[in-house]
């Protein structure tokens, strides 16, 4: 209908004039409508029918089956291609499944990958065989067949600007009295580390905690892939500076920059490396943090922080570990399990850290024989005093037997 060279010319022209609209058009209906009008107006001689404009738009920013799958189910979290099958993972199902509504070839997937590459002006060739890119709420990693002997592979992560965990569905995650506990803990500006395996809901729980922070407490949000969508989630109800790493700017750089912006909260989406050291410095200078990390349980969170700090700094481990136990208030561990054929994410444990290096269990929840069993401890006088210091009214956890 329209030659590839013509489409390439149209794409180059509109990307130069309206780069933000082009990027947003991959995942935003509104942006795509704006782009459609611009393309039609600027190329009226060549694109003299709506059908031609539709065709060119699909070739430039259409993602075909990826769009179809995402529209079919708002619970889709991952779409992957293993060189011969397209696999879909949804948050409401335990196991992923192959997409079989239409035949998907490697050539078809390559076209989708190339659209991502073109949009972010990166190469995807035998010389540049790995592509990492983000478009709106989609993040892609693709590996070229030059280094993948069975064929090109692709993984797309889908994130949406919504709170998966809310007051309305909190009882599916933990007892309601823990909702009030977390609300009080955030009001007391507690420093919180959230651990759990991949897929346990760490980032969603982190965003849930951030929902309690009032406008008057500035938040610096730092991530290396655009998945939080905090500005879209909270709009003008919170004072948020949302920052994203780049090839030349690390999380460590952004944590250092955050200290010069007078925030109350510095929240790193996921702590993975030596930025852990700068985050401790932030805590020691009276800033509050909420971050996620990979750790086996709440007891191993302090040691994980030490190991990450050692990736870039020489430490007095004993002294630094003491600082963590003294200034990190809560460790939270999440888990996921199968229940009635669906994946259920739940609060596994909440504990306090003490200056002497001990860990005090506040709440524990286990999934045993198809049901959840809770054990409730007591919060320390130290945490009670912190709540009083910040004028937090909190009646406490239920007493055993209640």
Automatic annotation (TrEMBL):
<feature type="domain" description="Bacterial type II secretion system protein E">
    <location>
        <begin position="126"/>
        <end position="316"/>
    </location>
</feature>
<dbReference type="Pfam" id="PF00437">
    <property type="entry name" value="T2SSE"/>
</dbReference>
<dbReference type="InterPro" id="IPR001482">
    <property type="entry name" value="T2SS/T4SS_dom"/>
</dbReference>
<dbReference type="InterPro" id="IPR027417">
    <property type="entry name" value="P-loop_NTPase"/>
</dbReference>
<keyword id="KW-0614">Plasmid</keyword>
<dbReference type="GO" id="GO:0016887">
    <property type="term" value="F:ATP hydrolysis activity"/>
</dbReference>
<protein>
    <submittedName>
        <fullName>CpaF family protein</fullName>
    </submittedName>
</protein>
<comment type="similarity">
    <text>Belongs to the GSP E family.</text>
</comment>
<dbReference type="InterPro" id="IPR050921">
    <property type="entry name" value="T4SS_GSP_E_ATPase"/>
</dbReference>
